[in-house]
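quick one, 437 residues, struct below
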Amino acid sequence: IYSLKKMENLYIFLPHTNQIFFQNIASSFTKAVFSMNCLNRIFFNNMCPFFPLMQQYFPQESFDFLSVYNELAKLVLNMGNVLPQSIQILKKFTALSKIELTRKQVALLFCLSFFGVLPVNTSNLLNKFTVSQVLYANSGPQFQFGRCFLNYLKTIGYWLKENNPILDEKVIYIRENINRNAWNFANLNLISLCQINFCPLGSLTEGNATYCVDFANKFIGGGVLKGGAVQEEILFGLDPEAIVALLFMEEMDDNDGIGIFNTIQYSKNKGYGKTFEFFGSNIDGSSNMYNVKRHRIIAIDAARDDKRLNQLTNFEQHIYQSIICRDIYKALAGFNLINQDYGFEKSIATGNWGCGVFNGIHELKFVEQWIAASFAGVQRLDYYTFNKIEMQNALKYYDFIKNKYKSAYNLFYALVNNKFDAENIINCLVNLNIAPI
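---
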């Protein structure tokens, strides 16, 4: 892996802008490849267990990939005609910024990183876009993600061979930092609470909502290349086009939301966490491009440990308000991206955001997201409860709360101006004696 040539404050320069880098890359991709072991020798000096293990235990997957490897090699050798010279870094604190790349450009960047020939940035504000990390695992989720990525590149290879126009489609990476001063909720007191459609089980990406929420790490993608396999990592592993955001998307600020629009789920899986496993391709080789479902991902990182709210005294109401408002504005920053993405139904699939390793409280996260979605103009929020017992009160009293508070501002005002028991938010809202303003 080469050192990064140059990373200015605003741009990452790509390897074909340096003749020495490009010659080194080209010398690898012009060599004949007859087996997975050849790839291991050419690119990794026989140091990656992934390739021999694939050849031994998954010969058909290996054969399918090798059958289109030459198409990927030709794409790499033509990078000067495919990629721009540089890519803008999408920085935090930016009001609105975006990058549009064709599916072919995204695949080329991913391929370079997969084979360990893309320069590695050293910025501590960016997640590390080093896809080849997964190839050093010999078991577990990392190895299984390697199989997902091999399947993705195989599909791209097939599409390159048939010159499929799907490769010319744009994948959009967008971020927004909202100005809190521009969102005076009191001026939005006529906005009604949006409709909630409770879904007991299922995948956020497989329902009827236009957008799905990524329960994100502040560094986009989280640990997808490091062996993590919870909601965000699985989403990115199955939709590898999302992983390219790691190359140029800075960590999120408290007021940032990130959108990754028009990705495709290339793989299927079973299991979660340590039991995660690649379970075959999600793309039929003969699929017409119009039959392939595209995903529109909204990434927001939740605050950690809601239970600290109950440790605050009555004299610390301002801290209570600050913690709750942080996640309402964070969700709003993400949900508001639907208003930058025109022509689609304003429906979002979400669920128990931040209620896993971030130790969030289910009822509180539900109310926070409901308020934010309403202010953002979401028409329908498909809320996946996964049959969690902690969501029973939300299901039971949803209609009551909607009728009692009527507007998003009324619910917001009640939530932040009363120091509720954070683990019993729904009952507190139901029993609140103060009439809505």
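DSSP finds 14 helices and twelve strands in the chain.
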